[in-house]
Amino acid sequence: MSLLVVGSVALDSVKTPFGEAEEVLGGSAVYFSVAASFFSQVHLVGAVGVDFPKGHLSLLQERGVDLAGLEKAEGETFRWKGEYTHNLNEAITHETHLNVFEDFRPRIPTAYQHCRHLFLANIDPELQLSVLDQVKSTDLVACDTMNYWIEGKLEALKETLKRVDILIINDGEARELAQEPNIARAARAILAMGPKTLIVKQGEYGALSFDHEAVFSAPGYPLEDIRDPTGAGDTFAGGFMGYLAKAANLSPLILRQAIIYGSAMASFNVEAFSVDRLKTLTYPEIEERVKAFKLLSHFDIP
Ligand code: AMP
Prior knowledge:
The chain is 36% helix and 25% strand. The chain has helices at residues 28-36, 58-62, 125-134, 147-152, 154-162, 171-178, 183-191, 232-246, 252-269, 276-280, 283-297, and strands spanning 2-6, 10-16, 19-26, 41-48, 66-72, 78-83, 92-97, 117-120, 140-143, 166-170, 197-201, 207-211, 215-218. Helix 1 crosses helix 8 (232-246) and helix 8 (232-246) packs antiparallel against helix 9 (252-269). The chain is globular and about 65 Å long. It starts with a strand and ends in a 5-residue tail after the last helix. The structure holds adenosine monophosphate.
């Protein structure tokens, strides 16, 4: 039941057609941990600067996320500034300030080195590799990345991909990574880079999962109130990995269920800025939305 995540802890400034938020809690490891905490015990490894507001950690603490691996480093917290226009599937990055992540060298506490499930959230692939060098035995390793690293650290990213079981990225990133516009062909090319499973997130249209045997399609939930898509991908990954960490095995059936739980978590997260919707979310609400997902695409052949 133990799940380790290494990723960014951020102060995000985000503008969408529905409003804006300045310096709010964000970061890949934050969205992931809060989502996964509904299913499993989560250990977070990351870094914040001396300017990080103390109150921002209370939600993580309330959700039982173990923060022993969160370093407080000299310098400023990682900051990301982005915008969504009417295409809510695509974030436009205005600023990325790595700050404490420039010198961050993840140190995995001895107690977590035998974690069964590991998620390498969106951070520098060189840091992802250094985490892989430190963990001793895992049942499942998944990772995320983004165009920033595909364009800036491709060789390190390819090394990471050789060592992970599951890659979770969005469709634009999959096309860019594979240098192939057709998504099915791009998926085949990425599976050849190492991961046994590729999950392609398609924003409001859902997600596709590819492995060497099959393709699975999860719908997007048709929400009427979307306010901020930031963190949808990490929230998806948190629900997905949290569910897998709780499950008894990693059968194809369980993997499909985990994709739907991840999709349900992401569908809640986009209803508000930062992690605000996850703050009030309850487990019965998650179960109800998972049932709605089933109804959404279930049909019988006569
Ligand atoms: P997503 O789930 O893709 O919407 O991820 C959004 C989160 O990623 C935001 O909260 C950002 O703080 C974080 N982020 C943006 N750029 C980077 C980066 N280059 N490295 C790590 N985290 C990032």
